[in-house]
Task: inverse folding
């Protein structure tokens, strides 16, 4: 048969003439990198963070188009549909689902936004990757090292783009502190400090009937099925409950600042070789939130660099931030701004952010814009976050908590991604048993 070339314009015209054109043509149909194509997005998990990320995708209307929504909470789903309608003028053609497996199998979806609670991250991202979808997933990466390994392996095997929501890599206070450290303005770096909020006490919430707008069994999914109370649907208190978030704030918010410690020194390919720590947990049965309240974890890299991770009630006056400590002084970036112990460094033109010889990787706009730009440019990895470095930052939280729970120093081998000669610690790298038939299926 003689092959007759068809232009993109004539192909579109034939679809329109036949009355068969879909609401939006996904990029993979017409050529991944054609500049006029839009990346089609399906969003899974539409709570407060999910809706916020959804709005960012909607704001990229010239390059991306949201075509599907999924949540087991009908109120969240309806609210998100309203947000889509407000932005696009109509939500017609945007499909809605209560089961993520239906969304990730849609041929018209190019990429999936995963913004559920932590206990679902690995299973949903793996399902999306298995279906050949690119993934933007919120942090943390996974509820166990094994789940994170499965995601990284799947990304490489399927050749998809995976972006993890380390938004603070783009924050100027953090970048400034890191660039000062990288360029020797602080002298030789002796240690890095980072901190985030600890646990808070929550009384046990009374069980309530499951409303008709909520699929509570689906929400719990692979995690234990606990009594329903509507207040459990937000990150507070569930990110402090070990059933859904095994490491609590130590991981859920801590990964932002642990990541900045590695990112700020361009050590994303590394992991510490030793870790030890101590922490205080609520007395058994005293609180619904049972993850670590207060902590101090100490990591040592192969070259002797120390990384100290503490909760916000620390002696350093460091709150939600990272501090690079050198022989000449320190500089820190926090959610509340930039500080340094070196007088006048903030006014020195040679020490300005972006003006020094070594600059940290950056992207246009936020991490979601970077994700879409990466897909349109045909790059294999995003500029601001790559899966192999992202997983190491996530694992800092896991191995720190393992050391705290075991009460001893642990030795980690980044090449094998296991502890050295420690079967008890290596067992903690594995995922916990899943409920209701859910399995960790590798791609």
Result:
């Amino acid at each position: 048969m003689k092959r007759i070339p068809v232009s993109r314009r004539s192909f579109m015209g034939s679809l329109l003439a036949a009355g068969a054109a879909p609401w939006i043509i996904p990029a993979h149909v017409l050529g991944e990198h054609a500049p006029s194509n839009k990346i089609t997005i399906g969003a899974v998990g539409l709570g407060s963070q999910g809706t916020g990320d959804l709005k960012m995708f909607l704001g990229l209307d010239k390059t991306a188009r949201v075509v599907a929504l999924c949540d087991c909470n009908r109120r969240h789903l309806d609210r998100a549909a309203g947000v889509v309608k407000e932005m696009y003028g109509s939500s017609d053609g945007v499909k809605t689902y209560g089961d993520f497996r239906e969304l990730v199998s849609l041929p018209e979806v190019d990429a999936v936004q995963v913004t559920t609670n932590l206990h679902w991250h690995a299973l949903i991202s793996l399902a999306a990757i298995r279906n050949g979808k690119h993934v933007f997933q919120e942090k943390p990466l996974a509820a166990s090292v094994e789940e994170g390994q499965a995601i990284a392996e799947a990304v490489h095997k399927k050749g998809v783009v995976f972006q993890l929501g380390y938004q603070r890599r783009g924050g100027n206070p953090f970048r400034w502190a890191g660039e000062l450290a990288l360029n020797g303005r602080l002298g030789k770096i002796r240690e890095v400090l980072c901190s985030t909020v600890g646990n808070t006490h929550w009384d046990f919430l009374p069980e309530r009937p499951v409303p008709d707008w909520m699929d509570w069994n689906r929400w719990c999914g692979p995690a234990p099925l606990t009594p329903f109370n509507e207040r459990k649907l937000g990150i507070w208190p569930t990110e402090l409950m070990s059933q859904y978030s095994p490491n609590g704030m130590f991981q859920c918010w801590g990964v932002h600042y642990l990541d900045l410690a590695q990112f700020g020194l361009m050590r994303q390919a590394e992991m510490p070789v030793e870790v030890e720590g101590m922490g205080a947990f609520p007395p058994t049965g005293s609180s619904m939130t049972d993850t670590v309240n207060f902590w101090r974890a100490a990591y040592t890299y192969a070259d002797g660099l120390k990384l100290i991770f503490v909760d916000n009630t620390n002696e350093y006056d460091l709150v939600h931030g990272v501090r690079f400590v050198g022989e000449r002084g320190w500089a820190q970036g926090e959610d509340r701004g930039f500080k340094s112990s070196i007088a006048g460094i903030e006014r020195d033109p040679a020490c300005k952010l972006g003006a020094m010889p070594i600059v940290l990787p950056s992207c246009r706009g936020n991490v979601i814009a970077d994700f879409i730009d990466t897909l349109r440019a045909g790059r294999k990895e995003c500029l601001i976050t790559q899966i192999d470095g992202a997983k190491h930052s996530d694992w800092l939280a896991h191995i720190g908590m393992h050391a705290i729970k075991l009460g001893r120093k642990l030795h980690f081998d980044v090449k094998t991604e296991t502890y050295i000669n420690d079967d008890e610690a290596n067992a903690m790298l594995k995922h916990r048993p899943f409920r209701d038939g859910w399995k960790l299926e590798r791609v």
